[in-house]
């Protein structure tokens, strides 16, 4: 592998807001792109030689960068390639980290392959999906990822990690936890199967029941998911201000059965929604947020909640990262006071240092 192939940064002193779907983030010192693993190795070496920090991004759809910016190199993954091959009766889709996620899903669906159809319409690039084990409508990438090819910054070598080695869990993985910043995802392989799609999610089931579609194909599931997501402002659309977000700002908390039983009383309702999972009951964060008084469309200066989805914090008009963070703090504080549940943010926060508001957002309990 030659390290000399990377051409160096393309831009200097550019606002991160330009690369972020929620439109916030101060100046970054250098911005460049990586179109191959050799570029990734070159950019890593470039940073090491200068003692410069490195932040790898895809579509910037799950990142909040501070208004103070990032005094390092932002490297956008632009490694392309989508290849299909057969293995033991399954189809392997190998996708470059810089491929559009929804483009990869569309290509699989077009071939009648199931496994990714419920993840249609999620913004960002392929390389970002293992980070938080992207999921929606009853599927997550951990269900189909076969292996992930990474550049390991600890050893400056390419490694291939199996699904088990990625330590996937609900909206997380080793890439977001203990090994945050260590691995640069260059290629992801998915094991897909020709056949019936996954339809477990009530919203999706309801549409097929209403339209009396007995045996939907993967392409039918994709169109229904896209339709539902568009209605909820969860497909990027420059014309729709509700999509100027990072998607769901908070993860659905998992609480004990006892804590779940107390939620209904705290909300003065007969019942509280919840789904049994390993370790307790998963409660929709949207339900808690609305019951704490933050309803769809509520605004607070230049920030607010989407008019279509209470989980999406939206940059209404020129908001700063600080305004987004403080609004999220108010929501978290109110939910914890009313329900004793500590919501955790889904996006990755960069450049905030030991900021007390961000530390509060990351806290899992009192
Ligand atoms: C409207 C909207 C709807 C959304 N809906 C969903 C949803 O339904 N389900 C869901 O799970 N998410 C959802 N998201 C969140 C987001 O789209 C996903 O998490 C997506 O996978 C992020 O990819 P990205 O390329 O934009 O990553 P970025 O935002 O660019 O980066 C996110 C994190 O991953 C790291 N990273 C990115 N690429 C790499 C790489 N190649 N190697 C190493 N690290 C990398 C970054 O450093 C950062 O820490 C939504 C976001 C929006 C704006």
Question: Would you write up a description of this structure?
Answer:
The protein is of the alpha+beta class. 25% of the residues lie in helices and 25% in strands. Helix 7 (321-339) crosses helix 8. The longest helix is centred in the C-terminal third of the chain and has 19 residues, at 321-339. It binds flavin-adenine dinucleotide. Flavin-adenine dinucleotide (FAD) binds next to strand 3, strand 9 and strand 13.
How is the topology of this model organized?
Layout: E1 11-15, E2 27-34, H1 37-50, E3 53-57, E4 63-65, E5 70-77, E6 82-87, E7 90-96, H2 101-110, E8 113-114, E9 135-136, E10 139-140, E11 145-152, E12 157-162, E13 183-194, H3 202-210, H4 218-231, E14 254-255, H5 257-266, E15 275-277, E16 280-282, H6 285-291, E17 299-300, E18 303-305, E19 313-315, H7 321-339, E20 348-350, H8 356-362
Parallel strand pairs: 2-5, 3-5, 4-20
Antiparallel strand pairs: 1-2, 6-7, 7-13, 8-13, 9-10, 11-12, 11-13, 14-16, 15-16, 17-18, 18-19
Helix pairs in contact: 7-8
Bound molecules: flavin-adenine dinucleotide (FAD).
């Amino acid at each position: 592998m030659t390290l000399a192939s990377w051409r160096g940064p393309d831009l200097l002193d550019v606002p991160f807001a330009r690369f972020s779907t929620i439109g916030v983030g101060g100046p970054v010192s250098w911005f460049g792109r990586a179109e191959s693993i050799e570029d990734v190795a070159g950019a890593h070496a470039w940073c090491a030689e200068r003692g410069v920090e490195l932040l790898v991004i895809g579509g910037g759809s799950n990142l909040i960068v501070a208004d103070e910016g990032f005094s390092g190199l932002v490297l956008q993954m632009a490694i392309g390639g989508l290849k299909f091959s057969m293995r033991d009766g399954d189809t392997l889709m190998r996708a470059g980290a810089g491929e559009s996620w929804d483009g990869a899903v569309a290509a699989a669906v077009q071939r009648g392959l199931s496994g990714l159809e419920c993840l249609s319409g999620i913004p960002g690039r392929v390389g970002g999906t293992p980070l938080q084990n992207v999921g929606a409508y009853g599927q997550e990438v951990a269900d189909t990822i076969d292996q992930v090819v990474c550049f390991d910054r600890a050893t400056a070598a390419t490694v291939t990690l199996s699904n088990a080695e990625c330590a996937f869990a609900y909206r997380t993985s080793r890439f977001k936890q203990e090994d945050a910043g260590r691995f640069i995802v260059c290629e992801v392989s998915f094991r897909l199967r020709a056949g019936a799609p996954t339809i477990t999610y009530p919203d999706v089931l309801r549409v097929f029941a209403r339209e009396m579609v007995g045996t939907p194909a993967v392409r039918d599931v994709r169109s229904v998911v896209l339709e539902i997501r568009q209605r909820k402002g969860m497909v990027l659309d420059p014309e729709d201000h509700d999509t100027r977000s990072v998607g769901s700002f908070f993860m659905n908390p998992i609480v004990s059965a006892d804590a779940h039983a107390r939620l209904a009383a705290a909300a003065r309702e007969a019942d509280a929604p919840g789904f049994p999972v390993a370790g307790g009951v998963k409660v929709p964060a949207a339900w808690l947020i609305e019951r704490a008084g933050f309803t769809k469309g509520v605004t607070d200066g230049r920030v607010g909640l989407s008019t279509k989805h209470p989980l999406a914090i939206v940059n209404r008009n020129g908001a700063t990262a600080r305004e987004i963070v403080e609004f999220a703090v108010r929501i978290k504080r109110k939910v914890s006071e009313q329900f004793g549940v500590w919501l955790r943010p889904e996006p990755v926060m960069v450049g905030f240092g030991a900021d007390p508001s961000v530390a509060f957002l990351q806290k899992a309990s009192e």
